[in-house]
Q: What sequence folds into this?
């Protein structure tokens, strides 16, 4: 059975952020993820994880000025020093939380721009090497243009090609089922093809990005396919609850009893 991680940026928003850890544990989750922890001290996050027996599955490295519309720095040629400083900040939180993988956002840039391509490759290679020294994986996530117009990394094949070309042992693909369906379709075959590269999976229904099982995809089939493919990592629940988090957890009921508390890398 998949090991699901509640995304605390989108789920349990009925509670203040630090109180969402307790809500997730009470609902039966044994792992969590979120976009960013940086509004809270590292030890505050670590204390909530320990108190509620939760594993930190994933979070993003600093993305620049999120409020101003920035969505990462990696493809921005003149922001490399800022990216490097952000990685060090992220590593402080990684050490406190015990997370095993971090996501590097690409940024808003033209995917056909040679300067952006060069900057992105440099940033990915440097960040993977830096995280590798700490025993951590780096994951790259293609994001669809409907949700994030202008995002540099909007193609699963391009992400896979870069990962294969750099051939760094800790550089992996973040496979979001929702983004894959919108970008390409044929999700099952892409999972089968790309599974050797996958370091993290996320899920949400298509098209509304609500709970699994409420859209056009057969989410239960895809979860079973992950088992058939031998995927042993986390499945992050990066969806917007349609009418309150707890009210929408019917999809989770068949999986709740199988959510172990052991740390899965």
A:
């Amino acid at each position: 059975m998949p090991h699901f991680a509640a995304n605390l940026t989108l789920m349990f928003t009925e509670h203040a952020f630090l109180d969402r850890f307790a809500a997730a544990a009470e609902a039966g989750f044994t792992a969590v993820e979120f976009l960013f922890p940086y509004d809270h001290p590292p030890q505050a996050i670590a204390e909530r994880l320990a108190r509620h027996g939760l594993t930190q599955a994933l979070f993003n490295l600093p993305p620049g000025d999120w409020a101003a519309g920035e969505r990462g720095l990696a493809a921005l040629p003149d922001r490399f020093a800022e990216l490097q400083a952000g990685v060090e900040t992220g590593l402080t939180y990684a050490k406190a939380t015990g997370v095993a993988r971090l996501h590097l956002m690409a940024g808003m840039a033209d995917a056909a721009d040679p300067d952006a391509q060069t900057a992105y490759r440099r940033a990915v290679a440097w960040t993977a090497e830096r995280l590798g020294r700490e025993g951590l994986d780096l994951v790259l996530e293609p994001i669809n243009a409907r949700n994030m117009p202008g995002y540099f990394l909007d193609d699963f094949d391009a992400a896979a090609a870069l990962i294969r070309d750099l051939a760094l042992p800790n550089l992996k693909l973040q496979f979001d089922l929702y983004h894959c369906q919108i970008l390409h379709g044929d999700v099952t075959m892409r999972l089968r093809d790309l599974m050797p590269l996958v370091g993290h999976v996320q899920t949400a229904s298509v098209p509304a990005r609500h709970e699994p099982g409420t859209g056009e995809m057969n989410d239960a089939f895809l979860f079973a396919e992950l088992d058939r493919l031998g995927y042993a990592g986390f499945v992050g629940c990066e969806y917007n609850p349609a009418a309150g988090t707890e009210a929408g957890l019917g999809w989770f009921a068949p999986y709740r009893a199988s959510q172990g508390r052991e740390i899965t890398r």
Summary: Residues 14 and 251 are 19 Å apart (CA to CA). Strands lie at 3-7, 31-33, 55-60, 101-103, 137-140, 171-176, 198-203, 234-237. The mean pLDDT is 97. The chain has nine helices and eight strands.
